[in-house]
Structure formats: structure tokens, C-alpha cells
Write the C-alpha cells for this entry.
Amino acid sequence: MKVYEINGEFGIENLKVADRPIPVPRSNEVLIKMRAVSLNSRDLGVIDGFYNPNLNKPLIPVSDGVGEVVSLGEHSNRFKIGDRVSGIFTQSWITGEPTQQNWVSTLGSPLNGLLGEYVVLSEEGLIRVPDLLTDIEAATLPCAGVTAWHALVEEGKIKAGDTVVVQGTGGVSVFALQFAKLYGATVIVTSSSDEKLKRAKGIGADFGINYKQTPEWDKVVLALTEGRGADHIVDLGGSATLNRSISALRVGGQISMIGGLSGFRVEGFDIIPAIIRKARLQAINVGSRDMFESMNHAIEHSGLHPIVDSVFPFERAVDALQYLTRGSYFGKIVISFKH
């Protein structure tokens, strides 16, 4: 089978196709023929050596995807041949709160990922995907979808009438927009692109703020909420946005800290505004299998469809990753396996 490997030097330009034997599932494992994978910013960090410069190589990158069950190991009974499944990002996080030990079971580093034609995973680390979604759509769910769901629904306890601020229009942000509207919330989207803000309004956003034209976007949020502030802020900017997120928050509101697109260290963090607002700063690291299942029930019940920006063939996986680095996408980037 064909796979892409990180082997030798880090960097997208060094990602190479390699031949490996098709793996054989052991007890309680499942062999999956991959149909599609989707990309996340984390994949770039793994491939570039940002997250772990001492990565065990060779490693197959990319954590999210969907495939068809083609073989079952002994004692495997959660799935049957032909089922469409996705791996959960943290393979050992089934339910409840995570533990330190869970973080050694994440797909795409330190475990091998899904950018190959076949993969073997534990049946406990798999979930059936909603029937109404195509392979391309279903491939977007494991990280971006579950992260947004965890932030707003599991931790944020979102309800009708809440105001949600979503930063950007990447995968997590667009899912957060969709889930917030599903619950009857008002959604404010920030972006540096008027075209992306227009597209966001086309899928339900109530307001858009171009933060390049209006750097003090927090003041706009306060004006739109009549001085009260937002109930939830999905913060993907990191160092350049966290202080303004606190400024735009209502008393007792939640900021979901998900990304660090502008950096992971906040210089000049002002504690007083956070105390005054009784701000809840909740770090979000994807989610459990239970969360994934709950999200899928909501998708099936509502008929929600993920937003896909573009689809690349498996042979152009490097091009897809290069496209991800440019940051011009809206929603998710997917790589399709043509069998």
C-alpha cells in the first residue's frame, strides 16, 4: 500500500510516498480501507517538527479521516465489514475527563496517522459516521467538529439566545458557527477577509467584523451586545487575540482556548479584566468518543453538512498541505482516495 511518511528531515517538501505492507488486524482491531482524510493546522506542526522535534520516524501524518471496514481481528465485534468509520483523535479517550496518559494515543503523532491507503486501529478508537454525510464530509469530523462541539456544547452549555464570537473561518470556526446556529445562538464572526465574512453570513452568521479594518473588534462586540459582552468566544488567535477576547466577554462568560494562530505566548496579559468579568478560560483539546457520538446524533437529527473548501486527490497530498499553509481556505481541506 502507498503511504506518506515523515522520514529524515522535517518539512512538507520532505514528505515522501513509501510502500508498506497492508497491516493485519490483531485481536480487537479493525483494518480500514481509507476513503478520505481532512487536514488540520496540527498536521503542519507535526510535519514541521514544531510539536515534537524528537519524533519517532518514519511516521505517517494526518489524524482525521473516514474509511471502510474491510477486515476484523479476532474478538472484534463493534463493527461489521462494510461499515464506514472514523478514528477518534485521542484513541484511548473514551469518556469522562482525559488523563495525562491519553495524550500518548493521538493519531498522526505520536501514533501513526491516516495518510495511507489502509490503516489498522483498535475497535474502541472508532466510531460510525452519519449516513447522510459523504466520505468527503465525514472526513472533516474527528478534530475540527469534535473540538467545536466540545467547546460550545459540552463545556459551554450553549443555549438559545446566547451570543457567540467565532474567530476566523477555518475548520473549527465554521463548525462552531454551524453548531451555534443549531442551538439558536447569535453568531459574530471575525476575519481579515470581507469575502469570507460574506460567506459566513451565507451559512448563518449574524454579524461579521473585519479585524484588519477594525482592530478593536472587542468594542464592536460590546456595541452589538449593548455593552453586555459575548457569552462564548471561540479563540483560535492565541497571543494576539486573548486580551481582546476577555474585553469582549460578558461577566461569567467562557473563552474556549483552541489555537495559537498568532502565537502561543501572551505578552502583557492583563489579569484584572479577566477577574472583573469572572472569565472562564477553558482550554479545549478535541474530545472523547462519547462527545463524538453525541455530535453525530445532532448532525443526523439536524441534517447539518460540514463545509468543505477543496478536495485534492491522494497523489496531490503535498499540494493540499501547501494550500493549508496559505490560510486562504473556508472550512475544511480534504484529500480523497480514489480506489
